Give the backbone structure.
Amino acid sequence: MKTKAIALLSGGLDSILAAQQVKEEGVEVTALHFNNPFSVSPEGQKKELLGKISNQLGLKLNNEALGKDYLSIIKKPKFGYGKNLNPCIDCRIYMLRKTKQYMKSSGASFIVTGEVLGQRPMSQHHKALFDIEKESGLKEMILRPLSAKLFPETIPEKKGWVERNNLLSISGRSRKIQLQLADKYKIKDYFWAGGGCLLTDSNFCRRLEDIIKIDQLNLANIELLKVGRHFRFGPSFKFIVGRDEKENQKLDYLKKENDYLFKPIDQAGPTGLGRGKINESIKELCTKIITRYSSGDQDFKIRITNDKEKIDEVYKAEMPENNKYRSFII
Ligand code: SF4
């Protein structure tokens, strides 16, 4: 019977090559992908690409959503943040602990990752990688085929499940060897940088910090952070304005029962979504902001709707005075 392994598949080239390398050793590899709410790539696009990748590699693909418990490490990571709000070490530990459960339930003997020594400043240097292994309870059970020869032997190597001489010794940020391997294996479909993580984006993290501060970190609010211009009017009200038609539609889609939608009537202009406790002066300010980003004239009118309270009002909107609205931008 073949030895089994679980390969973490982010969709980035390194994770694909790592899985391929271990498969070539005659190991039965199953892929596991974590759906990260902070991924730059839209879910549909990711799903399609991951489907293509796993088909090409001939791997069964499992998906695991990073949910509520994942958010708690974003708020208070034991090993701290990288340059922005990216808690990379805690994030890896979290994913590997989950993978360990998969490993046990599927009868696999070890885990494969595409990590490359020295590629990422926070989580891919010797000490961090050892801390990650120790904290996830996977000492010597994680095989990193792309840099394996730069690390002490792991159990899969010691047991002869994979041949150490066939593994690689890549280090650093250059992608040269990986691109050569992609050519060799005819791998054309993959995400650059594993699909990208918004926790490393300073603009996104400014907005994220805002919802962490007021204790509103949840999956629905994270989705909103990815769309439009954001304004904060005190701890209990947030306003988001679409920057194009696609974002206006996205705001329609993301609207929850208690949210307010602001839409220009009979004129082109952005959609605004208000979340939280509203009052007359906030409504007025929101309508002015909508006007600011529209081509509206003095007769510009905006309809405000809220499902629950059945509000449907028409406002005559004015431009905000002296760019005052700017102080509310997050
Ligand atoms: S970049 Fe994002 S997904 Fe990757 S390890 Fe860091 S926090 Fe996790």
